[in-house]
Amino acid sequence: MRTWGGFALWIGSRVIYALAGILAFANPLLASSALTLMIAVSLLVAGVLRLIVGLRERPRRGWG
């Protein structure tokens, strides 16, 4: 790390990863529910974005 700001960000992210790992071991049901929710949200967002792009390309020939 070249700056203290970058170092602090690196340390902060490692602390968050460690806490998430500890919580995942402490409560695996909550961890699996949170991961399932994150996957569901990301799939919904991806689907909406694909729909938007598809509708924007509709005027072009061969859009389907």
From TrEMBL:
<protein>
    <submittedName>
        <fullName>HDED protein</fullName>
    </submittedName>
</protein>
<dbReference type="InterPro" id="IPR005325">
    <property type="entry name" value="DUF308_memb"/>
</dbReference>
<keyword id="KW-0472">Membrane</keyword>
<dbReference type="Pfam" id="PF03729">
    <property type="entry name" value="DUF308"/>
</dbReference>
<keyword id="KW-0812">Transmembrane</keyword>
<feature type="transmembrane region" description="Helical">
    <location>
        <begin position="7"/>
        <end position="26"/>
    </location>
</feature>
<feature type="transmembrane region" description="Helical">
    <location>
        <begin position="32"/>
        <end position="53"/>
    </location>
</feature>
<keyword id="KW-1133">Transmembrane helix</keyword>
